[in-house]
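Lecture 7 notes: from sequence to structure.
We start with the chain below.
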Amino acid sequence: MSTVNVLSPAGEITGTVELPAEIFDVQVNVPLIHQVVVAQLAAARQGTHDTKTRGEVSGGGKKPYRQKGTGRARQGSIRAPQFTGGGTVHGPTPRNYEQRTPKKMKAAALRGALTDRARNGRVHVVSSFIEGDVPSTKAGLQALRRLTERKHVLVVVERDDELTWKSLRNLPEVHLIAPDQLNTYDVMVSDDVVFTEAAFQRFISGSPKGKSVTAVARESEVAESEEAAQ
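Predicted structure tokens for the same chain:
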């Protein structure tokens, strides 16, 4: 079991955390990761594309010219696919692109992706990004740059950590995500994965289960839901 230093916003080491071997040191199954990522991207497709067949295009009810004697090929409608303005042959129609992916496969792929990042020293843990109680994008970016200079960074933050959300949400190189939303695709497209210490502990302890589970929404999410209701 390897360890990672916990850094303060100033870049000072404040402690260490252990990376559980069952999550950050497993066998990396590349075909499995590929399958899960493809399924995730497929599920994100809207599938609302639609084209009209010759039966759906308006017009063309009259036969353009007589069947015989013209020297040309027989035609029954100017809305046939070979005519300009005609219908589309075998065009896309609305469909669902979702692929069935068992939960165990998703979990194994996520562990493999995190293992790859951990083995290359690209998993970081910080006590926090901001010192004080006032959000600051500038201070958040400075704290992040003390960890890595890479272009794409995945930051895992607890939902109720409003200070970090407000400080980092406008940075184009940062993708913010809650511990229970961590997924294979976001890990693979990011150069580094940065956990806040609280989010790391929440992630390795697993999602709460059972009848006693209660969802906790951030203040901004509550505000958005209230505006939508009005």
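Points to note: The first strand starts at residue 2 and ends at 7. The first helix runs from residue 21 to 24.
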